[in-house]
Design a protein that fits this description.
Number of strands of chain A: 14
Structural class of chain A: alpha+beta
Strand content of chain A: 5-15%
Helix content of chain B: 25-40%
Order of helices and strands of chain A: HHHEEEHEEHEHHEHEEHHEEHEEEHHHH
Distance between the termini of chain A: 77 Å
Shape of chain A: globular
Oligomer: heterodimer
Shape of chain B: globular
Distance between the termini of chain B: 75 Å
Strand content of chain B: 15-25%
Number of strands of chain B: 15
Strand order of the largest sheet of chain A: 6-7-8-13-14
Number of helices of chain B: 12
Number of helices of chain A: 15
Structural class of chain B: alpha+beta
Helix content of chain A: 25-40%
Amino acid sequence: MSGKYKTPMLDELEKGPWPSFVTEIKKARNSSSMPDMADDELGQVEKSYNTKRGYWKHGGIVGVLGYGGGVIGRYSSLPEEFPGVAHFHTVRINQPSGFFYTSEALKMICDIWDKYGSGMTNMHGSTGDLVLLGTTTENLEAIFAEYSSRGWDLGSSGSAMRTPSCCVGQARCEWACIDTMGICNDLTQHFQDEMHRPAFPYKFKIKVAGCACDCVAAIARADLSIIGTWKDNIQVDQAAVKGYADAGMDIQSEIIDMCPTDCMSYDGGKIKINDPQCNRCMHCIAKMTKALKPGKDRGATILVGSKAPIVVGSLLSWVIVPFIKLDDDYENLKELIENIIEWWDDNAKPRERIGELIEVKGMRPFLEAIGVDPQPQQVKEPRKDPFFFWAESDFAK
Amino acid sequence: MSLPERQTDIGPPNFEQFLPPVIKKNYGKWAHHEVLTPGTMVHVAESGDKIFSVRVGSPRILSTERIREISDLAEKYCDGYLRFTTRNNVEFLVSDESKMAPLVEELKKKKYSIGGIGPRISNIVHTQGWVHCHSACTDASGLVKAIMDELHDYFTTKELPNKVRLAVACCVNMCGAVHCSDIAVVAVHRKVPKIDHENVKKACEIPTTISSCPTSAIRPNPKEKSITINEEKCMYCGNCFTVCPPIEIHDPEQDGVAIVVGGKVGSLRTDPKFSKLAIPFLYNEPPRWPKVVAAVKNILNVYAENAKKHERVGEWIERVGWEEFFKLTGIEFTFQHIDDFTFMRDTLRTSAAFKY
């Protein structure tokens, strides 16, 4: 491991118990056919550590023929000083749902990347794609041919449907009320054109969580959040409840007293649940996984709008459809999503996310456009001020 | 050498081919799970079948060499099956219980950090930083490394009242989920950007630049064929820089990070919450950001000492009150803490009942 530069600041970050990204960048030079990339990356980042500023230009428009996204152009603003990263583009590869891999698949991905790129990756990017960090413009078509011919497609970028992602779901979780991985894969396949050819006002993210624990942060990080839920009663195994008590759990204080709706009681032997009062928050189920399970009448809550602060403040997603029973082929879900996107696409200004558009236009035009009735589950509370709109159609009622 | 024939719009490979047989067999039929140690768990199916998982931390930036090493380990102990988590950990999926102990042994020998399951910290979700992003005003990977080194015991062994989700974002675009994390670091600017009129004229679309501003601080400047910024209205978000690079927002001496706390995404017990401002500014101090690390550790320790079992950071703070949070942590309350942006109406106190 002999790099081109002395990097005392970064070397400091190879000490300590947590795995070091600096070590990874140094390792990347060993196997990549272009060791200058990792070398100059280290040189440039060391410079950033000294000057406290970055040296990357805004992304340029680069890509593969026929696609408008999936590759992010990245150029150093100091190409003479660090020629190895003069081009340092990102290639986004669409991850398999749930981030499951075999060693064989991963090694194939590595072999191609070593041949055409820096040897650095992100496993994974914030939205979900498998991210290959650092290649040149002239290598892009070869990279795409190598991966796509082996069954791996590009992810997405720009003003497009972004790569959907999901929690582990029914593959390895007893709480998943919907098949998150199946839904994620199905939607990804369905929206290939929308993902690869950006034609939307701005980005549009979809995340699928199996229950309200929301391990994929769907409610905070997706324009469209799909969260598994149920409608009937929580399934209780009283023998297992006893098991928890015998093992020393203080059921009264840890479960009953922490129920937000006060719908549970415990008599020292059995748990009783007043199910109509339960709001399905998942606390009791998550803490007593052997004893309590979601009900059997399962479906999804559809929420819309969450995003990070840019432009006018952060948003969490809002409940739009409290409960939808999913078709086997998800046709009803896909139709709903298409209607939601169509309204947004027809009405939004450039760079306006759907949550922001709903704030501007109001919830009513949105709900009417997608054919969803007003329901108390959509709000925390009704409006406070006595100003409200009436439509002609309201007088007919 | 000729290239293979490209295919378009094929989407990702179907996940089914990557599932261990025991998962395929018991898909959708899991009964319960048990956390065995801070880095291992077992899921038991209705059929009685079991799948064991071993979770290790990752810096998210992985070399191909590392991925091959992880793959080799998966071949040796997991028939080649592994996955990554939404927080960028690696999970080895072990179908044969007898291979658990030797896998853990080898991971320890190779200095992997095993942990992150249950009431403790998991890996820090973070962004690209100076490693790869044009808009970064700190280095996410460096901050994560420095914080995780210091809090390592809370990943591998120590327990907390509940899980604590950490995040780092290198600018307010927040590609990491800072806005709903228990404790998070977000890089911020503090100075009005400098306008390079000559290049704005050449490179930027003026209406797009004007509409990019959340506080309507940008007006046209017909004389220069550029824009002007009303300095009193600018909140330094940098969105104008995103659409028009000649508006330079970076200021290495005055850029730094803020710390926000109390967010969550799950609905357990209480609704999902946004993170709120705890510390408005700390300077960038690479390579180890000692003041940021100390501030995060202080908040985590005060939470660990004061929260009830199962309370997340935000739930604890809401129970005791924010005035109590500032008292217990010793963090100074400043003008920056009082919202004068979109959430002002919701956040000012409208009651005469509070603590000292």
